[in-house]
């Protein structure tokens, strides 16, 4: 019987503690939105998934100009094809590059000095060098790892209780403590991006969709759903690490779980995923 695990952040005592430990990430470049001539929607998923590679130099200016803008379906597809050819990929041997996917590198701001093996600035998963190396060993090309740029980093240790910012907003915590003058001694950290996804979990009910542009509206809200995540029957895709369907949840096999646990990694919780018998 195969077992699968969700890798996730631990439960924190407060949003402040979460912000204090994990900080916030910003990607400066994102793929354009799509303007669909069939369903008449201009849409994207801002701040969700990342592309598995950096934007090539030759397209950087063009994509920066198109960020936050939308392209027709044809132009969107043409740009994607040019992007893949610029990085030497003929097709998509991984999950698609959707509207408003972010390009690495991410720029990280953390109010404390990060030492943990995992950091969880929404919506990304960052890992230390040794976790990245271990994942490269066990997962091979199932996962991409892109080095993060450390931007504003606090001086204090993350083990301290988080100070509450004067504004009361957890994201303002970055402005409350002393920052390091130089971040060259911090990290490195890597954003990990699975290259594959399973089929959608059983509770995902599609209310409406557009087959031309891929827009979907679903009923289930995974972020508030209680209990363990579930894999759909037949969704085991032979991958060692993958997204759960179209969600941001990252699932690993038992082999990966064992490899990770050998490292006794900090700031990580592993939760078993319900998986139907074959
Ligand atoms: Zn559409």
Largest sheet: 4 strands, antiparallel
**CA-based gyration radius:** 19 Å
Distance between the termini: 8 Å
- Cα shape: globular
Mean pLDDT across residues: 88
Largest beta sheet: strand ordering: 14-15-1-16
Q: In which range does the helix fraction lie?
A: 10-25%
Number of helices: 5
Distinct ligands: zinc ion
Overview features:
278 residues; alpha+beta; four-stranded antiparallel β-sheet; 5 helices; binds zinc ion
Structure description:
There is one protein chain. The protein is an alpha+beta fold and 278 residues long. The chain has five helices and 16 strands. It has helices at residues 15-22, 57-66, 73-86, 129-139, 254-262; strands spanning 4-8, 24-30, 33-35, 42-43, 70-72, 102-110, 118-119, 126-128, 143-147, 149-153, 189-194, 206-209, 216-218, 241-243, 250-253, 269-273. The protein has a four-stranded antiparallel sheet. It has a four-stranded antiparallel sheet with strand order 7-8-11-9. Helix 4 (129-139) runs antiparallel to helix 5. The radius of gyration is 19 Å and the shape is globular. The termini are close together. It binds zinc ion.
What's the gist of this structure?
By secondary structure, the chain is an alpha+beta fold. Helix content is 19%, strand content 25%.
Write the layout of secondary structure elements.
Blueprint: E1 4-8, H1 15-22, E2 24-30, E3 33-35, E4 42-43, H2 57-66, E5 70-72, H3 73-86, E6 102-110, E7 118-119, E8 126-128, H4 129-139, E9 143-147, E10 149-153, E11 189-194, E12 206-209, E13 216-218, E14 241-243, E15 250-253, H5 254-262, E16 269-273
Parallel strand pairs: 3-5, 6-10
Antiparallel strand pairs: 1-15, 1-16, 2-6, 3-4, 7-8, 8-11, 9-11, 12-13, 14-15
Helix pairs in contact: 4-5
The structure holds zinc ion (ZN).
Zinc ion binds at residues 36, 38-39, 41, 210, 212-213, 215.
């Amino acid at each position: 019987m195969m077992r699968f695990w969700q890798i996730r952040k631990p439960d924190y005592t407060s949003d402040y503690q979460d912000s204090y430990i994990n900080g916030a990430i910003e990607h400066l470049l994102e793929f354009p939105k799509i303007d669909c001539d069939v369903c008449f929607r201009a849409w994207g998923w801002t701040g969700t998934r990342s592309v598995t590679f950096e934007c090539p130099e030759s397209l950087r200016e063009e994509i920066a100009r198109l960020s936050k803008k939308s392209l027709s379906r044809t132009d969107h597809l043409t740009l994607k094809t040019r992007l893949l050819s610029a990085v030497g990929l003929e097709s998509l041997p991984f999950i698609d590059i959707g509207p408003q996917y972010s390009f690495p590198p991410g720029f990280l701001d953390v109010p404390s000095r990060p030492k943990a093996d995992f950091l969880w600035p929404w919506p990304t998963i960052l890992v230390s060098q040794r976790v990245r190396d271990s994942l490269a060993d066990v997962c091979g090309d199932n996962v991409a790892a892109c080095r993060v740029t450390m931007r504003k980093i606090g001086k204090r240790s993350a083990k301290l209780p988080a100070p509450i910012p004067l504004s009361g907003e957890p994201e303002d915590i970055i402005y409350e403590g002393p920052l390091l003058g130089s971040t060259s001694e911090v990290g490195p950290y890597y954003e990990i991006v699975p290259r594959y996804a399973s089929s959608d979990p059983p509770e995902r009910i599609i209310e409406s969709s557009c087959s031309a542009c891929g827009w979907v509206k679903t009923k289930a809200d995974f972020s508030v759903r209680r209990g363990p995540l579930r894999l759909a029957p037949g969704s085991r895709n032979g991958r060692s690490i993958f997204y759960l369907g179209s969600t941001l949840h990252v699932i690993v096999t038992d082999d990966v779980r064992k490899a990770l646990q050998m490292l006794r990694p900090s700031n990580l919780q592993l939760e078993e995923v319900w998986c139907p018998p074959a």
